[in-house]
């Protein structure tokens, strides 16, 4: 059975006007998946906000501070250290451990050099791309988290890295407040409030507390 062709319109009848093709089409409604992809593109790596000007690097915080915590030591510190070193050297000499004697001498020499020579000032910079310590630059993707500690009475921020080397960055705050550093790092790195001490740190604190090399002078 074949389909019949429609009869041509009668000459006296007028055809209805067709819909014009140049009218603007109604906007298509975006799907939820497309909205999520747009939101993901508006957000940077690891959820950090993307800067409005993507081709510029924005400096968030910059300061100078000593490269490491430093505190001047008195004569009692050197005398106590020398007495302990001599006692260890005598014990090692009795057991004929001459190589260990040289190691102990080297360690004491390095310790005396660190507490005698003050460190020079480092330039620290936190930007929208990472952290700069002097001439070393670390991207945010290379860093893991951060926490604060007090060493030699000075606030220090520790930033841990994903790689084993260097493993951790130590930035002395100097005159910068903790809250300023925290507000600059929080958009990019998680803040670890509590850090468990390892065996070496606990042992060092126990020795420092029970067998201090010098007595702390209390200011009047």
TrEMBL record:
The keyword Transmembrane applies. This is DUF5673 domain-containing protein. The chain crosses the membrane at residues 77-94, 100-117. Keywords: Membrane, Transmembrane, Transmembrane helix. The lineage of its organism: Bacteria, Candidatus Roizmaniibacteriota. Residues 1-51 are annotated as: Disordered. It comes from the Bacteria.
């Amino acid at each position: 059975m074949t389909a019949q062709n429609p009869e041509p319109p009668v000459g006296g009848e007028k055809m209805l006007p067709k819909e014009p093709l140049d009218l603007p089409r109604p906007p298509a409604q975006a799907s939820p998946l497309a909205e999520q992809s747009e939101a993901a593109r508006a957000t940077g790596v690891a959820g950090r906000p993307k800067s409005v000007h993507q081709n510029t690097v924005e400096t968030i915080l910059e300061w100078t501070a000593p490269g490491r915590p430093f505190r001047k030591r008195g004569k009692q510190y050197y005398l106590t250290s020398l007495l302990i070193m001599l006692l260890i050297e005598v014990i090692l000499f009795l057991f004929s451990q001459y190589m260990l004697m040289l190691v102990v001498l080297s360690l004491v020499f390095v310790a005396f050099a660190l507490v005698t020579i003050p460190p020079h000032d480092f330039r620290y910079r936190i930007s929208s791309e990472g952290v700069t310590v002097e001439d070393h630059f670390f991207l945010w993707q290379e860093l893991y988290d951060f926490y604060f500690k007090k060493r030699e009475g000075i606030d220090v921020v520790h930033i841990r890295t994903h790689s084993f080397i260097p493993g951790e960055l130590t930035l002395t705050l100097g005159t910068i407040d903790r809250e300023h550093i925290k507000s600059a790092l929080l958009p990019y790195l998680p803040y670890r409030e509590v850090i468990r001490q390892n065996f070496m740190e606990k042992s060092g604190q126990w020795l420092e507390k029970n067998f201090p090399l010098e007595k702390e002078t209390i200011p009047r």
